[in-house]
Amino acid sequence: MVTKHTKVINGVEFTLETGRLAKLTQASVLARAGDTVVLSTIAVGVDNPELDYFPLGIEYVEKLYAAGMISSSRFIKREGRPTEKEILSGRLMDHAIRSLFPEDLVREVQVITQVLAYDQKNNPELLQFIAASAALMISGIPFKGPVAAVRVGKINDELVYFPTDEQMNESSMNLIVSIIDGLIVSVEADGKIISEDILNNALRDSLIQGKELLDFQNEFVSLAGKKDFTYTPRIISTELKEKILAELGSDFEEKIFIKDKNERHDVLGAIKSAIHAKFDADYKSTDVEKCFDDIIKEIVRRNAVDNKKRIDGRAMDELRPISAEVGVLPRVHGSAIFNRGETQVLSVVTLGSSRLEQIVEGLEGEGTKRYMHHYNFPQFSVGEVDRKFGMANRRAIGHGIIGEKSILQVLPGEDNFKYTVRVVSEVLGSNGSTSMAATCGSMLALLDAGVKLEEQIAGISMGLIYEGNGKYVLFTDIIGDEDHYGDMDFKITGTRDGWTAIQLDNKLQGIPVEILIEAVAQSKKTRIQILDYLLTVINAPREELSQFAPRITTIKINPSKIGDVIGPGGKVIKEIIAQSGAEIDIEDDGSVNIAASSEEASKKAIVLIKEALNEVEPGTILDAVIKRVETYGAFIEVNRNFGGLVHVSQLSDEFVKNAADIVKIGDKVKVRYDGTDEQGRHNFSMKGLGLAK
Known about the structure:
single chain; alpha+beta; Ribosomal Protein S5, domain 2; Arc Repressor Mutant, subunit A; 8-stranded antiparallel β-sheet; 6-stranded mixed β-sheet; 16 helices; 29 strands
């Protein structure tokens, strides 16, 4: 049976429908907002009691046909591996719903949302929240939804809720708040140095603004009903936990609070191995593992909330010792190492011409990225072996993007800085908040490279343990174990005056907004503390770029003459690039950006461009080819647009009777351009330059 529910919300007609498409799934929902349409499907696997985690898979897929597009690639027209945008959109959904399932669910669940139509106004990434949430609600799977996403923009100093994609082009903020009834489950944002007060107001108001979307889903579920769903809860014997506690002894708690990470993990690892050896014969190994981990978790959380005691002994708002250095690598364009406790990140900057911008193809059309931040997390950073070393996974892409969004807000504009910039952050040691260390290290490396950032950026991660009924504690600068045993990882980057990027990952079934607001205030104090230190490392961009970085020179030409520089089939510009060794990019307004590794190459390129335009300065020495020889002189060609006569009197310092005595057709010669005569003819001379090569 087909069930359909339509409602106008914030001036947009929304529709949820089930029962018509993807009938063999556990549940499917077709969602529509305006003329944007997405299909969310829920598929489930069989119970697997041997698993010790919930195998949830989230995929967001854009089909180019949704926007009436065919890929611009000449070789591959089919959609392939997920794009970075699709991965990040899937992570956005993952952060919003993962914590809303029961911990003992060990049956595989896969949520796939496909974009089927896009109207260029209503964002499909946000529509996926309604579609996937509604599908989960009618699937029968135990899910503490519904969930809705509220996008907030800032246009002309006004907060705009549910802006269209077109409006977002004018916005200085992109804030996406995922909510359930009365609580926040995730936040993803970037903004142009936005004050914390504006953020706090937006967080509070999002709970109100999004309520109608939650009601809409509940109304749909009441019409569609819920399917049957069964799973076997993971039940662990309380007897096993009591036996493990007895075996651990009274001094076990002290070992959890060993400050050094490696020592603590070695000690606890040895104890865990002994526990497995004793109990694995009578109980499931995964149950033994879970009990042991739960015991540590309870001790860590109890000490934090009741005694304000952290694993490494710090105060709740205390930052770990930080240190940094810049210029750590030779030949690269900029580099820095940032250390916070046992977390260490190396960031390296590479500058290139605008021709090296990344081309991005999506439903919005083809665009480019001039700033890229790539984050790598090899397993050796936590002392482990990695058999799958190589390509970045979804986590690495997600951790890299927050640094990218953060620093992009303070990167100099294209008018003043024609470079493409790539920063790679290599995590060399990890004990919490490597993405924030990567952001700090990248900012330092950019200053080391001579990039004139508008402001300095730093980032910090806040943690939380929440026991309910107003009983909670916030952590500043969480370490890995606090992330594991705690309830949230709240990353915030920014300047002294405001934030630039936010990412909230939480394990609770929603966080009270006032706790997040408190975390925002606490994070700003620490961010300023970090910025104070970073100023002592490097307080301004280098005066000069690295000698190994390309120099970009911009000249202006008449836009109507762009074709003369490019030539048929790009022949002229290819010759200019080959002869000069410079990279050349021409913009529609006639700006010609010349990227060269030396001043000589840059000057050579400029001369060749002016030759193509017939705009050579008198006195310039040029390479030419003899095209015709007459008694009275030789006709030369510098390029297809530029050439003229070398009179017989200008062929040599000596007297020449016949030009054929000196040159022949095809000879390559050096000539000096002597300007034009009264009739506008170009004059050249070979005097003092030697004869044919």
